Amino acid sequence: MKTIFDDTNTEGVLLVDATNAFNNLNRQVALANISVSCPSIHPVLVNMYRKPSSLFVGGEILLSSEGTTQGDPLAMPMYALASIPLLTKVETESKCGTLMMLLEVVHLVP
Q1: Residue 11 pLDDT > 80, yes or no?
Q2: Largest CB tally within 10 Å, which of 54, 57, 67, 94?
């Protein structure tokens, strides 16, 4: 990132912060994207995320069917892999020189 900021050819940087991105991830779309972009990890993620997770709150059970599970070591890789089609489309259509993703923050540099 520092290299991009220091580059004299950099005209600007756009920071996009996706609010609550990990919780709003559509699991079914994510799993479909990952089946193409990284088939080797797909079976593990399917076993973890194909059905809603049970959340136990005050004696009640709530079903969580969107997003990743907090504390899951595969949450970040799942989010990143699921985002590849979107990032590819943005990079292709925005005519930006560099597209970089840091966690759920996307930087576009013209």
Answers
A1: no
A2: 67
Question: In terms of Cα–Cα distance, which of 84, 98, 74, 99 is closest to 37?
Answer: 84
1 CB-near residues (< 8 Å, 6+ apart): 100, 102, 107
What CA–CA distance (Å, rounded) separates 69 from 23? 8
d(CA 20, CA 34): 20
Asked if 42 and 2 touch (Cβ cutoff 8 Å), the reply is no
> What pTM, to 2 d.p., does this model score?
0.70
DSSP E strands, 18-67 = 53-57, 60-64
Strands 14-17 and 105-109: antiparallel
